[in-house]
Prior knowledge:
With 169 residues, the protein is mainly alpha-helical.
Amino acid sequence: MSAPPPLQIREANAHLAAVHRRAAELEARLDAAECTVRAQAERLARHDQQLRAALDELGRTKDREIAALQEQLLTSEATVHSLQAAVHQRDKLIGQLQPRAELLQDICRRRSPLAGLLAALAEAERLGPLPASDPGHPLARGPSSPLANSTGEKGDRVHLKPAVFGTTV
C-alpha cells in the first residue's frame, strides 16, 4: 500500500477540520437551543404556577362571594316572610275595620239631617214645656189635646205621660 499523495492528505485534513468546525458549531447551537428551551420551560413553569395561584385565588373569591350572596338571599327571604306576615296582619285588620269604616261613612252621610234633628231637639228643650194655663185655651195642650202622646186614632185614648225633650243621643 502506498501512501496517499500529499494533496489528498491536505484535502482530507481540510475536510476533517471543516467537519470538526461544523460539529463544534452544531454543538454550540445545540447548547444555546437547550439553554433557550430550559429558560422557556422555567418561564412557562413560573407562569403556570402564577396562573394556578391566580385561579386558586379566583376560586376562593368566588366561594366567598357565593357565601355572601347566600347569606344575603337568606336575609332577603326572611325579610320577605316578615313583610308577607305583616301584610297578612294588615289585610286581616283591614277586614275587621272595613265594616266599621262603612258604618262611619253611613253616619257621615246622615250627619247633616242628624245635626238638624239635634238642633231642633235642643231648641225644643230650650223652649221647655207649656205652662199649665186655662184648659180651654187653644194653645194649652194637655192630655186631652190631639197632639198629646197618642197615635191619633179614636180608639187609642190611652194617655201617656207628656213627652219631655232632651238630648240623650
